[in-house]
Design brief:
The chain has 445 residues and is of the alpha+beta class. The chain has 14 helices and 17 strands. The longest helix has 21 residues. The structure holds flavin-adenine dinucleotide. Pfam families: FAD-oxidase_C (PF02913), FAD_binding_4 (PF01565).
Length: 445
């Protein structure tokens, strides 16, 4: 503690329980632990100093950005130092020639997006936690979100990264070379590494063209199979979001936000579709939707307020679920072509494992990505086991975009072979031989 205080100044080493509290429990309230201290370095060299001090003292470190992660990877399990990146907020000038920008790891997504738009470009990834989620956390989890169908996940936006190893050495580059085939992709290894390999301090990011016009529709459908079939028709250069949610989720959101729509009568399945382009895509969207065979009802919005109103039914889910209680949350993906079959299978698996629980599904259907939320269920292990085993049976992913964290580490074996897990262990040992960084996350203890 004395060394950390000497390096950062007393005000940036938090040991008082009241000051630590906000860093010790995750967004869901499901994961919590006591930290030895919270260290808040202000630049890369201070990050290196914290890591060296912790490594030499044999104290584990939990990197933390905006603490919006949903798998328990950014909060302490007990006795670690939490390294908060929220003071690493440098944001470089947008380079219009390369179409790139450099952002400190602690820059919140909303600030990055506004910065890019002010320069006539945009950032390709968007998630509902945009006001708090940080660039570093999004790299560490390979965040996906609402526009993956158009621009891909974080992995596709990262051109370079600067990171500090557990022993304090600095690796990586922020030059932003679009072409560099010099062997192993060390930046790529950091994407999705969940704070287990190094602390990311800054990132060089690709930007995308700004889109001037958007139109949004919510379709009421009878089944997930109809929703999946609709994607095949809607896919094209204007498609920028395809989100699925269900009757029970809409009822929770309505109650939580005091809403009444989106339709007069309830529908079993809702599909939110957004078209975006450099001309007004309203007519394209209306024509595409009117050509779909199985639509029961439609709401279409073109102005900002109307679009926000429709998005509220989808984006309100996470908040409304958490307001109801602490859920067991699982974020999984299967091939989109098998999404309807999977939806039936996962509902059956949850009701067998937890007959009195309440299941709320929603997700990014174009990627076959379902967020599985189980409420009113104490035995998280049995439910997780049922859901993740079902995913594995479909050849899917136990972690589509939130990461594995501590929540799903015991199930890594379901979708990674013994040879692949040996490689994971070898990669971890090569970057962090003493096991200082985020022990228990991603790779089970
Ligand atoms: C309402 C809501 C909606 C969400 N929607 C989506 C969504 O649509 N798509 C999606 O992908 N996610 C979503 N999330 C999850 C979450 O926002 C993302 O996982 C996000 O990437 C986490 O960023 P963070 O800065 O909060 O990271 P944290 O929660 O602080 O940390 C997450 C992980 O990254 C590690 N980490 C953080 N910073 C660094 C760093 N600088 N270097 C190394 N490791 C680091 C941590 O150790 C931890 O393992 C949502 C969350 C909420 C609450």
């Amino acid at each position: 503690m004395a060394r950390l205080r000497a390096e950062l100044g007393t005000g940036h080493v938090l040991t008082d329980p009241d000051l630590r509290a906000g860093y010790e429990t995750d967004w869901t309230g499901r994961f919590t632990g006591r930290a030895l201290a919270v260290a808040r370095p202000g630049d890369r060299d201070e990050v290196a100093a914290v890591l060296r001090a912790c490594a030499e003292a044999g104290v584990a470190v939990v990197p933390q950005g905006g603490n919006t992660g949903l798998v328990g990877g950014g909060v302490p399990r007990g006795g670690e130092v939490v390294l908060s990146t929220t003071r690493l907020t440098g944001l470089g000038e947008v380079d219009r020639v390369s179409g790139q920008v450099t952002a400190g790891a602690g820059v919140p997504l909303a600030r990055l997006g506004a910065h890019a738009r002010a320069a006539g470009l945009d950032f390709g990834v968007d998630i509902a936690a945009r006001d708090s989620a940080t660039v570093g956390g999004m790299v560490a989890t390979n965040a996906g979100g609402l526009r993956v169908v158009r621009w891909g996940p974080m992995r596709d936006q990262v051109v370079g990264a600067e990171a500090v190893l557990a022993d304090g050495r600095v690796v990586g580059s922020l030059v932003g070379l679009e072409k560099d085939s010099t062997g192993y992709d060390l930046t790529g290894a950091l994407v999705g590494s969940e704070g287990t390999l190094a602390v990311v301090t800054a990132v060089r990011l690709r930007l995308v063209p700004a889109v001037a016009h958007r139109a949004t529709a919510v379709l009421g459908l009878a089944s997930t199979a109809d929703a999946v079939a609709a994607i095949g028709v809607l896919r094209g250069p204007l498609l920028s979001a395809v989100e699925v949610f269900y009757d029970d989720g809409v009822r929770l959101v309505r109650a939580h936000r005091g809403l009444t729509g989106p339709f007069r009568a309830d529908c079993p399945v809702y599909l939110l579709v957004e078209f975006a382009g450099d001309h007004d895509p309203t007519e394209d969207l209306a024509a595409a939707v009117s050509g779909l065979p199985a639509v029961v009802d439609t709401a279409l919005a073109t102005d900002e307020a109307g679009r926000r109103g429709l998005w509220a039914y989808r984006e309100g889910h996470t908040e409304a679920i958490s307001a109801h209680g602490v859920p067991v949350k699982l974020d999984v993906a299967v091939s989109p072509a098998r999404a309807a079959e999977f939806e039936t299978a996962v509902r059956a698996a949850v009701s067998a494992a937890a007959p009195s629980a309440r299941l709320v599904l929603f997700g990014h259907l174009a990627e076959g990505n379902f967020h599985v939320n189980v409420l009113d269920e104490a035995d998280g292990h049995a439910v997780s086991d049922a859901v993740l085993t079902t995913v594995a049976r479909f050849g899917g992913s136990i972690s589509a975009e939130h990461g594995v964290g501590v929540a799903k580490a015991p199930w890594l074996h379901l979708t990674r072979t013994p040879a692949e897990r040996d490689l994971y262990a070898a990669i971890k040992a090569a970057w962090d031989p003493a096991g200082v960084l985020n022990p228990g996350v991603l790779i089970p203890r």
